[in-house]
Amino acid sequence: MKVANVSCFAFKFIRLHKRELCRARTVGQCSATTTQFQQDSLPVHPSPFNRCLGHKLHRRYSTESSVKDCRGLIYKKHGDPSQVLQLEPLELPHVGAKSVLVKMLAAPINPSDINMIQGTYAILPDLPAIGGNEGVGQVTEVGSQVTKLKVGDWVISRDAGLGTWRSAAVWKEEDLVTLPSDIPLLAAATLGVNPCTAIRMLSDFEALKPGDSVIQNAANSGVGQAVIQIAAARGLHTINVVRDRPNLQQLTDRLKAMGATHVIKEETLRRPEMKELFKMCPRPRLALNGVGGKSATELLRHLQNGGTMVTYGGMAKQPVTVPVSALIFKDVKIRGFWVTQWKRNYSQDEGAMRAMLDELCSLIRAGKLSAPACAEHSLQDFHKALDAAMQPYTSAKQVLVM
């Protein structure tokens, strides 16, 4: 009889323990011992239900995940982005020990994103792929061995190709770098490509000092606007070349409000007015070329002896032609720059990346660097965003806000 009573009591205790365990699982408050048991009991190839359960297990390292109904812009072949991109549901993988779950906040559409989808960029991810190389997200869950990231951190990708046009992703800790969350969202979303390109070109090719001049084409692009602002913060003059357009005066006023010293049309590069301009500021030691073709050749003509032209883009899709006289008599240097390669070269130098981002964030906080004019779109409106991004003479950056 006593044995029966003990067995009955044990059965009730086990049933009560299971009920409490279920409740603890629901609110993510399982003990470390229970969690370890659950992890050990997961199958090697977890079902969607168990993958969901796996996320719950990791909540002992994080807060409740707000990521639901994950979706992304996927392309399964290269071509016209408006034709090959599709908004599809995504199944999030299990958050591993050294990975984190990131809820994307905002991601811009850059020319390199378009080129990658078209299949013409220098690096191409395996297909099917998710579009987007830049954007900011917030960490919502972390793996048990993650040491440099915590829940709530804002993060951007270290390298291109992760696919940021999605509502959420599970990424390795090593693929991400933190940003302070006290800067504007759009500034954070657009920080990793254009401002990084601008600050490196202004820093790495010529030892510029206050009072020196820089000349650039594509001055209304994302890189161009960042160059204007960073150069102004360093006391540098900028000569900014733009294409003629109906709203030229409006564009000129906006660039000068950012800190541009001079804004001129491409046609002016070949006119006598340039001599008058150089009475007000010295000839440039650095030229930044994002266009190519004749525009690049004209920039070269105005460099100081021994100056450098850095090419970072080729919007005209025409080769850079260098006059022999510029090489022989002016000893100009012709260089190229790709921010993705810079990041890869310094992938093991945590200090270099951190110092660059800290300097840019300091400029943002001081009001000396702002995001380009942005137009915000939801993921559902991606067709509208793509159409706007591919229009000529556009100065606004199209941003997908999740």
TrEMBL record:
Keywords, comma-separated and alphabetical: Fatty acid biosynthesis, Fatty acid metabolism, Lipid biosynthesis, Lipid metabolism, Mitochondrion, NADP, Oxidoreductase, Transit peptide
Enzyme nomenclature, EC number: 1.3.1.104
Listed GO CC annotations: mitochondrion
Superkingdom to which the source organism belongs: Eukaryota
NADP among keywords: yes
Protein's cellular compartments: Mitochondrion
Entry keyword annotation includes Transmembrane helix: no
A Pfam family this chain is assigned to: ADH_N
Molecular function in Gene Ontology: enoyl-[acyl-carrier-protein] reductase (NADPH) activity
Entry's Gene Ontology BP terms: fatty acid biosynthetic process
InterPro entries: ADH-like_C, ADH-like_N, ER, GroES-like_sf, Mito_Enoyl-ACP_Reductase, NAD(P)-bd_dom_sf
Record domain Enoyl reductase (ER): where: 80-400
PANTHER family: ENOYL-[ACYL-CARRIER-PROTEIN] REDUCTASE, MITOCHONDRIAL
Similarity section: Belongs to the zinc-containing alcohol dehydrogenase family. Quinone oxidoreductase subfamily.
Protein name per UniProt: Enoyl-[acyl-carrier-protein] reductase, mitochondrial
Native source organism of the sequence: Alosa alosa (allis shad)
